[in-house]
Input
Amino acid sequence: MRVGFDIGGTFTDVIVLGDDGQLTTAKVLSLLDRVGEDIVTCVQRSSAQPRVESFVHGTTIGSNAVIENKTALTGLITTQGFRDELEMRGQKRPNIYDVSWDRLPPLVPRSLRLEVRERILGTGQVERPLDMADARQAIQKLLDARVEAIAVSLINAYLNPVHEQRIGQLLAEMAPRMVVCLSSDIHPEIREYERTSTTVINASLIPVVDRYLNQLEKYLSPYSERLLIMQSNGGIMSAQMARRRPAYMIESGPAAGVLAAARLAKEVDLPQVLSFDMGGTTAKACLIENGAPLEKSGGEVGGGATMTTRLFGGGGHALRVPSLDIVEVGAGGGSIAWIDEGGALRTGPHSAGADPGPVCYGRGGQEPTVTDANVVLGYINPEAIAGATLRIDRQAAWRAIEEKIAKPLNLEVLRAAYGIAQVANAAMMRALRAVSTERGRDPRGFTLVAFGGSGPLHATALAESLGISRVVVPMYPGLFSALGLLLADYRHDYVRSVALTLDKVDPATIFQQYEALEASARTELAHEGVAPDAMRFERQIDLKYGYQVSEITLPFATNLTAAEVRPALTKLFTEAHRQAFGYDRDDAIELVNLRLRALASAGPVRFADLVSRKTPGHPQPTNAARQAYFGPGPGSLEVSIRRREQITHTQTGPMIIEEPDTTVVVPPGWTVSRDGYGNLLLTR
Output
């Protein structure tokens, strides 16, 4: 038995794959004081004497701690003259013309950023030895300040870590129980600010994540000692590794859904896909081509919407860890609708969350949300959702929209509710355009794969705005991220900076570096219980023209001979640069980083098998109908209510398909059918 559970801002999704292949699912409110009990209840319901092989968990604990400034009190030791690196942030800002923009405060206050005298050159040579008295004084000052963690990031330590290692040894002597992170261990890559910021984020999250996992394991350990954590890159790692490198799980939750969408696209042969995941708090989008989601070597956290360009950051804290290229906006089912000072209708980014939740949940919520609007419009069942476990109060939602939105704007309630949905759609369009048109892709040739508790409600409206004519709603759409957890492989990423032009690179050194990275990877995977014959490795290389500030990551063939390395890399980079930017030059090419991806399968699950794995207590067919409002043009129409199993042939909208974990809206002008994998295909 394997269990995947994804704790979101509003709902926690649980999916249990039994030893007999049967799936048991649950969707419960994310009440953190009892979420462990709810997961255990679902496990107990699936088997009389459950014994779990592994729990796989997706979480936003890391990103929430950074965004809400609830990380552990952390100190930083750095080279003399680099104390303010964290605050200057490479002079990046989201909008150079916005004079009212306020920079986020650094994760480490200036009083806890201390300098030591030492210097290592860009060649890796020691110009000035480490002043041990300085180091002792800095450590003692941080200990007196009662910090919970200490990050060490010295200039050029990615080339020569000797001084960082000496400070690490000194810390082990003076404070053996202190959390210590060395940049040469966490992120040995060129670029000073990014390396320092990543190390600080990792150090500041270790105490937070450790306490969180301890609490979770208290409930789960009677059933299994094996807790695996989803990483930002779409792979999984052990809880022990997550305690050491929590920075790698910042985008843990969103990555699982994208991974599931990518696996589905590959299995059903969808070459171009936009994944769209709308939950209770945020909406996420990602570009998937030929079954592989777009990835990035780093990004930011804590700066609002995760949309950045190569030149301007989003105002957050730099985080250089491999991750899926997901764009996220603060628009979800729980996003609160409000009227700004200019009298314009807005939604989000503030969310009602799980407590109190939308007004229609009857848990004390007072502010109208996107979910309340969907209830008033007739899209969501007016009596109960989540498999009839959560009662819905449509009249309360109606009154909230009437009092807070409709009357102030002098609108009818249905028009106001429709406006809330449209404003939320406009915010989510930013994410979808960011991963399509802003990446140079024409979205009209793509398929939109919609999931999450609210995704299928809004998918067709977003598809129409983008010119997309096909939407796929997979099996278990509201639990799709939890399902993605069961599809994930073990994965660890390693990097080694080189920073030399190709004509000065020794091919033998490249091979030696890769072999050293593979040796480290084998050791770490073995500690996680992976058999040597199950390990596989993928080599990549970062190249750029010498004058460029960003590089292109390309595959590095393992069968190259030493004589073939330079010409093969030159050809590979020239072709990739021409494809990405439309030109190439005869300028010197620089090798920036060597990258290694270590993988191992954790247990295959195929979408083709899910069709026959019925969930116990599946809802019965229905022939009900109700009124739903589709805007000023169509107005209110009577729509038939169906279950997924009732879609046995192509049917025309308007129609609403109710499922235990979500609701699918098929508006007028769209048709719906079901394929051999159980997916709903919406076309126009």
Observations:
- The chain is about 30% helix and 25% strand.
- Residues 192-220 form the longest helix (29 residues).
